[in-house]
Amino acid sequence: MKLNFKTYGEGQVILILHGLFGSLDNWQTIAKKLAETHKVYLVDLRNHGKSPHSDNFSYEEMAADVAELIQDENLDKVSIIGHSMGGKTAMTFAVEYPHLLDKLIIVDIAPKKYRPHHDEIIDALYSLDLKTISSRREADEVMQKSISNQGTRLFLLKNLNREKEGGYSWKMNLDMLTNNIESVIDITEIPFPVSLPTLFIRGGDSGYILDTDFERIEELFPNSEIVTIENSGHWVHAEKPQELLEFITEFIN
Questions:
Q1: Predicted local confidence at residue 131, as pLDDT
Q2: For residue 14, what pLDDT is reported?
Q3: Burial class (CB in 10 A: 0-12, 13-18, 19+), 87
């Protein structure tokens, strides 16, 4: 699958993979900073942003999409930053295509299966009547009934696409993602230790990487380091961009 992407800068290549219900737009601030010293590819994963929709969802397929992009662009070894779902895609990529990788940065996700926890977000997304919504402000007011956090609402509403004939549509393939949510939260299959240099970055207020996950992470990624950004939740790149940049830059350089 030919993925949509944007590039910034020149130099050693970094690919950035967003999380569930996200898009490449979520990481532009980070990408532009990294582009001062690197060439950065911001990627829309399948069924997200402006990339094609598909009825299929698997981490193996998404890793293959990324490999196709790397080969189409004639890139040498790259570093990959993956957040949440993008992090699981990056871990799968490291298993399937280690020869294409230099370093791996996983942001706030562990190689494990998670309990279902997206019901509130999914209900809020389906609460919008996209044919009658007249503005993003109106959409935000409707979603406030389900989601109190403004940052989360703004993140989700970036997926709205205004139609020429009026109303809105979702950029993402919402029905497919909802129907495959069990696959999204499922465990990432890592059949053998990945020896690549890997950095795990977790939000101190997030519950996605627990202290109890450290042993398993170190077993599967023996050449890894785990760091914590305090006073940050799951969307580390939005909440603590400067601290995140410092960890990324130090590790990659």
A1: 86
A2: 98
A3: buried
SS3 at position 226: strand
Write out the two tokens for 24.
């490449």
For residue 57, the Cα-to-chain-centroid distance in whole angstroms is 15
Contact assessment for residue 80 and residue 104, using Cβ atoms and an 8 Å cutoff:
yes
**Single-letter amino acid, residue 186:** D
State which amino acid sits at residue 129.
D
Is residue 83 part of the annotated active site? The answer reads no
Q: Say which DSSP state 45 is in.
A: P
Closest CA to 90 of 30, 15, 39: 15
CA distances from 250 to 105, 243, 244, 247 (A): 12, 11, 10, 5
Neighbours of 240 (CB within 10 A): 20
Q: How many CB atoms lie within 10 A of CB 243?
A: 17
Q: 5-112+187-252: what CATH class? A: alpha beta
Cβ–Cβ under 8 Å, residues 100 and 78: yes
HSE-up (13 A, CA, CB side) for residue 113 = 8
Averaged in consecutive runs of 10 residues, what is the pLDDT profile of the chain (253 residues)? 98 97 95 98 97 95 98 97 98 97 98 92 92 90 90 90 88 95 90 96 97 97 98 93 97 94
Tally the C-alpha atoms within 13 A of residue 187's C-alpha that lie toward its C-beta: 8
pTM here is 0.95
User: Which of 58, 52, 75, 11 shows the shortest CA–CA distance to 183?
Assistant: 58
Enumerate the CATH 3.40.50.1820 domain ranges in the chain, comma separated.
5-112+187-252
Active-site annotation holds for 23: no
Residue in 51, 84, 206, 224 annotated catalytic = 84
Rounded (to 5) percent helix, strand, coil in the chain: 40, 20, 40
